[in-house]
Amino acid sequence: MKQEFRANGKLLITGEYLVLQGAWALALPLNKGQSMSVETIEAAQLHWQAYSQGKLWFEAIFNNKLNVIKSSDPAYSQRLQNILNMALKQDSETIEKMLGVRVRTELEFDPRWGWGSSSTLLYLLSTWLGINPYKLLDLSFGGSGYDIACAGSNKPIFYRRLPQQKPEIEEVTFNPPFIDRLYLLWLEKKQSSSSEVKAFLQKDQAQPEAIEKINTIGCAMLRSQSAEAFGLLMKQHELIISQILRRPMVKELHFSDFDGYIKSLGAWGGDFALINSPLPNSALCGYFADKGFHTLLSLKSVML
User: What tens digit of pLDDT does each residue of 108-142 get?
Assistant: First the structure.
């Protein structure tokens, strides 16, 4: 018997960092994600194979106590073992599902891009084992859970999760008339989401005024019918988060002479930035290549 599951990647458009304190966040599920198949084998073991863009990059075998028998990457097998044990904390009977199977995962995007390699894994595991993915997130990587919501959504979402409460998820439509001038620029430095989450929560207190402003900006961006108005909202959002983090805005840092608007996405300092510009694709590619950045994607091409 073979079971198959799939999870969408994610992109956070508004609310980065403050979504951890209960801000509403606009997030997009992506057409690239991660799939998982579970197939029965004779041995009372868990045989795990992980592929990335068609290539096997990790393989491990766990015994009936979930101890590692064999592994191609001891550090990752330890990390995976911890997640599986966290799943058992929710429901000890899931051990019966974990044994006597071969699990194969297939990541569809470059893991350096920060599109949800961890969140899609948690969602897939939770769907297979029949447990709560948000609880598994809390026990493992931590975070707001918007990425878990994107993993199982077929539409853009507004997402909020207040402390000690269940997530609030509202499906929305995001297809502005100027979407053809929105792009994603990879800043070529993978940020650790879990590390950023921990650092932010350790040093920052709640920001009620900033949260209210970000909520208003997110709603306005969703309704915006003008590329210029949308760009000004991007700029306002960037300024608020910049002041909270005490970090320079990405446009100030790398692209001060750019004709258009640029907003950081996700963990600042790496991952992707949102580009809003009237320049044609060829001119944009040339400009960013001259700055040392070579991966530019249209937003429309990655949205689910």
Answer: 999 999 999 999 999 999 999 999 999 999 999 99
Alpha helices (H) in 91-189, listed in sequence order = 95-98, 117-129, 133-139, 146-151
Per DSSP, 100 falls in state S
Q: Which domains does the chain have, with CATH numbers?
A: 2-171 (3.30.230.10), 179-302 (3.30.70.890)
What are the b/e assignments for 222-250, b being 16+ CB within 10 Å?
bebeebeebbbbbbbbbebbbeebeeebb
Residue type, 185: L
Contact yes or no for 74/19 (Cβ under 8 A): no
Q: What is the pTM of this model?
A: 0.93
Give dist(CA 299, CA 114) in Å, integer.
15
- For 208, 253, 287, 300, the CA distances from 258, given in Å and listed in that order, are 32, 11, 8, 22
Q: Which helix (H) or strand (E) holds 7?
A: strand 2-12
